[in-house]
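Protein in question kept in full:
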Amino acid sequence: MPAHIGIVAGSAEGAALCYRTICTEGAALLGTHAHPEVSMHTHSLADYMACVHRGDWRGVGELMLASGNKLAAIGATFLICPDNTFHQGLPYIEAHSPLPWLHIADVLVAEAVVRGFHRLGVLGTRWLVESNVYPDRLKSAGLDYVLPDADERAAINRIIMDELVCSVFTPEAIAYHQRVIARLRNAGCDAVVLGCTEIPLIISDANSPLPTLDSTRLLARAALSRACAKS
């Protein structure tokens, strides 16, 4: 039997995309309609955001750990969190976790190396873009990166938090992301990190000026591979 995947969810749209990817793409590995056992737990997004707004990343981690404990109790064998920003809380609690974690940035950076990219633009919430979640791992892999400027960070953060997590998808939001990605391309980037689990709902290889690294689906596929390796 494949391993049991535990999803520590944050926002609904990102978690739903991750869950849906695991379930729909599982058939390619396991047969028609088949996928590993998947369980999900999420606290209210407001609980997480209260910690985020006061810079309490340990508090974010404690919420993640509480979810992880509940998932371990019902049989999950490893954990994923389809929320890039919340990974800032993981270092505070990973040593105390009842189960191992697949880190979303590790998965994405590994894909960037395999595909031969060298200089990545990084999109996400302002908290993610201003953190070390991606820069540390990119530098360790010998990859360069470019971040949105302050105005772009503010605008993208507003789109994510006021629109995308609330299931609002507009042509204006798509166009804005395309303009930022085009600037990153002009700054020498050869791919763009979709480092918010909702950005893939509006941006993909089909409409992006740069090749995309979809953190949500990459994490889901890595979880599928890990689960099926246990079967």
